[in-house]
Amino acid sequence: MKISIFAGVLLISAAVLSDKVKHDVAWFTNQHIADEMHESDCANVINGRGIMKDNGGCKWSNTFIKASLDTVTGVCKTPLLNPKSNLHRSTGTFTLIHCEQTKEMAQKKAKSPDCEYKEGEVKTEKTIVIGCDTKGNPIHFEEFEPK
Question: pTM value?
Answer without folding.
Answer: 0.81
